[in-house]
UniProtKB/TrEMBL annotation:
Entry keyword annotation includes Lipid metabolism: no
Molecular function (Gene Ontology), one example: metal ion binding
Family assignment from sequence similarity: Belongs to the metallo-dependent hydrolases superfamily. Adenosine and AMP deaminases family.
Protein name (database record): Adenosine deaminase
Residue stretches making up the Adenosine deaminase domain: 10-326
Keywords in alphabetical order: Hydrolase, Metal-binding, Zinc
Cofactor dependence: Zn(2+)
Keyword Hydrolase: yes
Length: 330
């Protein structure tokens, strides 16, 4: 498959952190406008500089610290969607954090969400890409803050804000500490996803399934270390939001060939393909496709099947799905 051909395949991306997708030049520009020195988070080539997962989270939060108004998020959303559309993404879901958007104040959160949604509507008109939002609480910020986050999410649940989840450091705390937040979001009609099985092993995926009962798992790839769990995921129809380039970049796997996505797929688990935090991991959706083609010889048929599987697992309404399905059919 040619580079150009890969770019043009219509793609569905379910796992993208909005701040994590911020082009470094955009963050540098915003810091300059605000006369803030965050030069320590960039390398000599101008990309984000981090050493390991925990340092990555710190750099992520430092980059995010210059985003301080709804207007900043409006600009960010447009910049991010421009990159996604250039990679052939026709439908995406993005993680949004009231922690960063107004410090979990419900009134401020509404203003941030309004600005993000306006930018998404503009991008849909101008670039033909559709976006929906998923609020995420952040595990290492603790369950108290997660409750406030869930309340923000519940108050703004609807046709655009469609899901709730948890991200952050999976080695801190336990899923059951966040059960109240997940119940609150579920009762408000939000669909659920939880990061697990990235820095935690199969037991972390089991705990998320048991205590939070999400439809989708963010990453989940380390389930491969327990084949009974893999069978269970396949039987339950739990969808994995797999981000191979992120996992390779963070050092979970040596390279794409060593990544378990193809094995999980062969064993009947519903896998999808996403970038997580693309500029941090020097990736794009087009690059993910290219690398998967190289590693596993995945072709247009396989990518088409996974795009359709991703759309089936999307949290948007049926009318939106039907519209996007036509784009996937070509
Ligand atoms: N937040 C942003 N990227 C993340 C990742 N890969 N794992 C957990 N939390 C995150
Ligand atoms: Zn993630």
């Amino acid at each position: 498959m040619k580079e150009k051909g890969v770019r043009e395949l219509p793609k569905v991306e379910l796992h993208l952190h909005l701040e994590g997708a911020a082009p470094p030049a955009f963050i540098r520009g915003l810091a300059a406008e605000k006369k803030e020195d965050i030069s320590g988070i960039f390398d000599e080539q101008g990309g984000y500089a981090w050493r390991d997962f925990w340092h990555f989270l710190k750099v992520y939060e430092a980059a995010t610290s210059v985003l301080r108004s709804p207007e900043d998020y409006h600009r960010l959303t447009l910049a991010v969607l421009e990159e996604s559309a250039a990679s052939g993404v026709v439908y995406g879901e993005t993680f949004l954090s009231p922690d960063f958007c107004g410090g979990r104040d419900p009134g401020a959160w509404r203003e941030y969400l309004h600005a993000i949604r306006e930018a998404a509507d503009q991008a849909e008109r101008q670039m033909g890409i559709t976006l929906r939002g998923i609020v995420t609480c952040i595990r290492h910020f603790g369950p108290e803050k997660a409750r406030e986050t869930a309340i923000c999410a519940a108050e703004t649940a609807g046709d655009w804000l469609v899901g709730f989840g948890i991200a952050g450091d999976e080695t801190v705390g336990a899923p059951k500490d966040f059960a109240w937040s997940f119940d609150c979001a579920r009762e408000a009609g939000l669909r659920l996803t939880a990061h697990a099985g990235e820095w935690g092993g199969p037991e972390s995926v089991r705990a998320a399934l048991t205590d939070l009962n999400p439809e989708r798992i963010g990453h989940g790839v380390r389930a491969i270390e327990d084949l009974a769990l893999v069978d269970e995921l396949a039987e339950r129809g739990t969808v994995l939001e797999v981000c191979p380039g992120s996992n390779v970049s963070l050092g979970l796997y040596r390279d794409f060939r060593a990544h378990p996505i193809a094995e999980l797929d062969r064993r009947g688990v519903k896998v999808t393909i996403s970038t997580d935090d693309p500029p941090f991991f020097h990736t794009t959706m087009a690059r993910e496709y290219q690398e998967l083609h190289r590693a596993f010889d995945w072709d247009e048929g396989q990518f088409g099947r996974i795009a359709r599987q991703s759309l089936d697992a999307a949290f948007c309404d049926a009318d939106t799905k039907a519209r996007i399905a036509k784009l996937l059919e070509g």
